[in-house]
Design a protein that fits this description.
277 residues; 2-enoyl-CoA Hydratase, Chain A, domain 1; single chain
Length: 277
């Protein structure tokens, strides 16, 4: 065995409720990997608590000189379906301005970040995955955005950044039309690096990490920072939303998407919009 077993990281500031934080090391190469897994099956919905815990795990992994790669994963059948809609009713405004947004963790990470995706990868989980340096997908993965479907606006660097990944036309299609894409479609458009059978996902991730650990870790840090420079020119989170719709979350249209989702009905955005006018 080239790898040690996964060891759960615990201690002061590292006792988590919504994620699992683990590390293992390659016995021949001597470097290691850290795995940050959202642990909220069935759909691994995210809240501010989730991103706060992720921040602490990323901070530890980035300051551990033995760690060369950070893997972002999820426990259970699905990678995740974004933010908790019930929580977003009152929390999305705070989430947009949260000082530890999950995409920024990936951007700020000194170590390369690899997403291991299975099942649904929607909403916030999808743009977290495509902001990672690498994405390995199981063949059962499904990708897409849902914001306009549930009246959840998004702006900031991670929206136009998708154009760097899949091109402008496909990026607008994904964000504005909320279509879903199979793993093979995601591979064809460049959204993921590789697709493997679900049972082989962890082995494939280990293989990619082993290859990354075999080269200079300092050079990888420099290259990652160089590639990530292109994100810096984009608007910060929430600026466009606040300029266009400063009272979005108090408006009928802003509340309709979440209400329709929880009531299991189709949203009536235009009715809500006209009532609000």
């Amino acid at each position: 065995m080239s790898w040690t077993q996964w060891n759960r990281v615990e201690g002061e500031g590292l006792d988590f409720e919504e994620i699992l934080f683990e590390k293992k090391h390659h016995q021949e190469l001597e470097g290691g990997i850290a795995r940050v897994s959202i642990n909220k099956p069935d759909f691994n919905l995210m809240t501010l608590n989730t991103t706060d815990e992720m921040f602490r795990a990323f901070y530890d992994a980035n300051h551990d000189p033995t760690i060369g790669v950070i893997v972002v994963a999820s426990v259970g059948k699905h990678f995740g379906t974004g933010g908790d809609v019930e929580w977003e009713k009152w929390g999305l405004r705070q989430a947009i301005y949260n000082r530890y947004p999950h995409n920024r963790l990936i951007r700020a990470s000194r170590k390369p970040v690899l997403a291991a995706v299975q099942g649904y990868c929607l909403g916030g989980h999808n743009h977290m995955a495509y902001c990672c340096d690498f994405t390995i997908a199981a063949d059962d993965a499904k990708f897409g955005q849902a914001g306009p479907k549930v009246s959840s606006p998004a702006d900031g660097f991670f929206v136009p950044y998708l154009t760097k990944v899949v091109g402008a036309k496909k990026a607008r299609e994904m964000w504005m039309m909320c279509r879903r894409y199979s793993a093979e479609q995601a591979l064809e458009m460049g959204l993921v690096n590789s697709v493997v059978p679900r049972a082989e996902l962890e082995t494939a991730v280990d293989d990619w990490c082993e290859e990354l650990l075999s080269v200079s870790p300092g050079c990888l840090e420099i290259l990652k920072a160089s590639f990530d420079q292109e994100m810096d020119g984009y608007a910060e989170l929430g600026i466009i939303s606040q300029n266009l719709y400063p009272d979005w979350f108090d408006s009928p249209e802003g509340q309709e998407g979440a209400a329709a989702f929880t009531e299991k009905r189709k949203p009536k955005f235009w009715r809500a919009r006209n009532q609000g006018g």
